[in-house]
Amino acid sequence: MVLKLYLSPLRSGGSAIVLLVLREKNIPFEYVFVDLTKKESKTPEFLRMHPFGQVPVIDDDGFILYETRAICRYLAEKYAAHGPALIPMGLKERARFEQAASVELANVLPALIKVGQEAVKGTRGMPVDQAKLDVYEVILGQQKFMAGDEPTIVDLFHLLYAPGLASRAGIDLMTQASRPNFTRWWNELLARPAWAKLQAEKEQASVVQKV
Ligand SMILES: N[C@@H](CCC(=O)N[C@@H](CS)C(=O)NCC(=O)O)C(=O)O
Questions:
Q1: Which atom of ligand 1 is closest in space to residue 15's alpha carbon?
Q2: CATH number at residue 126
Q3: Which end of the chain is more exposed for a tag (fewer CB within 10 A), N or C?
Q4: Best mutation site among 5, 15, 55 for ligand 1, i.e. most ligand atoms within 8 A of its Cβ?
Q5: Whether residue 135 is found in the same domain as residue 169
Q6: How far apart, in whole angstroms, are the C-alpha atoms of residue 131 and residue 36?
Q7: Within 10 Å of residue 16's Cβ, how many Cβ atoms?
Q8: Does residue 44 sit in the same domain as residue 135?
Q9: Which of 109, 116, 148, 155 is nearest to 132 (CA)?
Q10: Ligand 1 neighbourhood includes 40 CB (under 6 angstroms)
Q11: What pLDDT is stored for residue 210 in this prediction?
């Protein structure tokens, strides 16, 4: 049975990141759209799959999994030989990958979210949060991607929040002239065909939804 991806029709947030991994690895899948505005993720049937009632969720031939990062890890491991590895195999490489994954989730994402929240309130506490990106600038001066010289799903995780910060709040922290290595990395991520395909699909979907 083909893998099912439960996602919001907006293809935003974690759903977008799972879509990217599916595309990067060319994994066959089908969409199951869940309309959050109609509380379709809170039905008893959906809550049996995801007790917190959120998307994304995958159903891989009866194996149900939720949480964006867990889904991406599962897909990258299951389809290790399809397309780019996206998770390193060696012990030390894997440890560095986990290090980068922790930094993204524990340090950088909360900082970006704080910038977004402060932008909404009109306070913009950017100096504190930019310090974390300055550390990224140093790391990316030594290696091509966040976990080493090959792209991994950790790089893709960064696409979850920052693009919306730029498009919705007009805050572009990712291509500052003071951080050339960071900017090079970010532009490489945005140039990946899977990202372009997702943008085209989102554009198409929003046209269809507006009609
Ligand atoms: N930690 C979860 C967060 C998932 C999440 O927040 N999903 C949102 C859509 S982007 C959702 O389903 N919201 C509906 C709700 O929480 O009721 C993940 O990474 O998958």
A1: 10
A2: 1.20.1050.10
A3: C
A4: 55
A5: yes
A6: 35
A7: 24
A8: no
A9: 109
A10: no
A11: 64
Which atom in ligand 1 lies closest to the alpha carbon of residue 55?
A: 12
Is residue 67 located within the same domain as residue 130?
Answer: no
Q: How confident is the model at residue 128 (pLDDT cuts 50, 70, 90)?
A: low
Nearest CA owner, ligand 1 atom 10 = 13
The answer to whether residue 41 scores a pLDDT higher than 80 is yes
pLDDT in tens, 157-169: 999 999 998 888 8
Question: Ligand 1 centroid to 13 CA: how many Å?
Answer: 8
Ligand 1 pocket test target in 11, 32, 36, 54 with most atoms within 8 Å of CB? 54
**What pLDDT is recorded for position 34?**
97
Atom of ligand 1 nearest to the CA of 71: 20
Q: How far is the CA of 55 from the centre of ligand 1 (A)?
A: 5
CATH code: domain of residue 74: 3.40.30.10
Return the higher-pLDDT residue of 99 and 173. 99
Are residues 78 and 114 both part of a single domain?
no
Nearest CA to ligand 1 atom 16: 54
Is residue 15 a part of any domain in this protein? yes
- Select from 67, 83, 99 the last residue of a domain: 83
Q: Which of 38, 64, 83 is the last residue of a domain?
A: 83
Q: Is 41 in the pocket of ligand 1 (CB under 6 A)?
A: yes
Greater model confidence, 126 or 169: 169
Q: How many other β-carbons are positioned within 10 Å of the β-carbon of residue 38?
A: 9
Claim to verify: residue 38 and residue 73 sit in the same structural domain: yes
